[in-house]
């Protein structure tokens, strides 16, 4: 009976996935003067992003995207319509019929920032995005001005003003998603914001927002499951085995996590340019010195791109700990550090027993209590 139940469950899941999917064809028509080297065209079928390979010649031609979408719309994103980079240097279009058509024309208006103009058939360029953009336009424009301020990186009041605008945008977007969770545009907006929100909210909090604001039928759909899987993959939970890494350290020797399997390992992801990271360093240095005799090894993993600046900073501040530079994010990627600082403690069995993010322990008070009990 159990085997029959399993087969029935798989059959229902496959049937639901097929029922939610549909085939869509989109014709891309390039007229004279359109340079396809400037264009990148991708599409999202509700499960994955795909890049459409454009032919290399610029002879006027018609190309076709054929896709099976598992979301209410096939989303096409076109990058390179502008003469120069803009705050959002791409345009998104949506197709929910069996076919659509996008024609590209060279833009002859020199006052216009668009390289090309488009003619659309069976394609939507607004299923909620105008409402979204108009709601946050004021803050986006104000942030664009602040980004041009040379004091942004050094003046605390300027940085706080920027962060305040960003927080207000986030609140407005959360409210929009709550009010419009039945619309595909806002379902997609939530999906796009998950990683960004994870800087301020834990995986559990984002999951609670998802369950509270999106109905069960949507959450069970293929697209809804894609969102759920993305949330579940946001961070390393306490109690899981720490991902192994092997990387060259400051002294040129290989630092391999497996070599510390009989020790507690305190790991901090940081960078010299990250102010909150630098503020944590005196405490981390104090803890490293205090608990070294109890078998605690402290490893600082930096994302600094400038090796000399990284080395000089360590020497200047006398940071007597193990140092690794993770420029390509090979360690950070497996440890799911979408932002820094992030601090972890691993026990002698290689299990993560503390995560500052999961514990919402910004001042590292809980970490100190755990170390005291070792």
TrEMBL record:
Residues 1-19 form the signal peptide. The keyword Transmembrane does not apply. The keyword Signal applies. Keywords: Signal. Pfam families: AhpC-TSA. GO terms for molecular function: antioxidant activity; oxidoreductase activity. Residues 236-374 form the Thioredoxin domain. InterPro entries: AhpC/TSA, Thioredoxin-like_sf, Thioredoxin_domain, Thioredoxin_ResA/DsbE_sf. Transmembrane segments: none annotated. This is TlpA family protein disulfide reductase.
């Amino acid at each position: 009976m159990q085997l029959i139940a399993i087969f029935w469950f798989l059959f229902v899941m496959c049937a639901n996935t097929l029922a939610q999917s549909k085939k869509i064809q989109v014709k891309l028509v390039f007229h004279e003067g359109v340079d396809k080297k400037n264009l990148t065209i991708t599409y999202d079928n509700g499960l994955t992003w795909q890049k459409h390979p454009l032919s290399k010649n610029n002879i006027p031609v018609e190309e076709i995207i054929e896709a099976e979408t598992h979301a209410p719309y096939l989303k096409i994103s076109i990058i390179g319509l502008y003469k120069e980079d803009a705050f959002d240097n791409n345009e998104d279009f949506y197709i929910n019929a069996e076919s659509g058509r996008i024609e590209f024309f060279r833009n002859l208006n020199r006052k216009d920032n668009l390289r090309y103009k488009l003619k659309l058939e069976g394609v939507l360029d607004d299923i909620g995005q105008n409402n979204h953009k108009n709601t946050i336009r004021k803050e986006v424009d104000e942030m664009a001005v602040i980004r041009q301020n040379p004091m942004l990186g050094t003046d605390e009041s300027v940085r706080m003003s920027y962060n305040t605008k960003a927080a207000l945008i986030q609140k407005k977007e959360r409210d929009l998603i709550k009010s419009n969770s039945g619309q595909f545009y806002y379902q997609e907006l939530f999906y796009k914001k998950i990683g960004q929100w994870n800087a301020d909210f834990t995986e559990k909090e984002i999951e609670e927002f998802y369950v509270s604001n999106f109905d069960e039928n949507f959450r069970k759909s293929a697209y809804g499951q894609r969102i759920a899987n993305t949330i579940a993959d946001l961070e390393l939970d306490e109690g899981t085995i720490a991902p192994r890494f092997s990387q060259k350290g400051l002294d040129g020797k290989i630092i391999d996590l497996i070599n510390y399997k009989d020790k507690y390992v305190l790991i901090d992801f940081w960078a010299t340019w990250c102010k909150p990271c630098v503020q944590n360093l005196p405490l981390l240095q104090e803890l490293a010195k205090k608990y070294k005799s109890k078998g605690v090894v402290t490893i600082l993993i930096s994302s600094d791109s400038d090796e000399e600046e990284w080395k000089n900073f360590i020497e200047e501040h006398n940071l007597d700990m193990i140092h690794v530079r993770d420029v390509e994010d090979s360690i950070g990627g497996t440890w799911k550090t979408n932002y820094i600082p992030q601090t972890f403690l691993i026990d002698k069995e290689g299990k993560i027993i503390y995560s500052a993010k999961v514990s919402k322990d910004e001042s590292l008070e809980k970490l100190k209590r755990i170390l005291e009990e070792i």
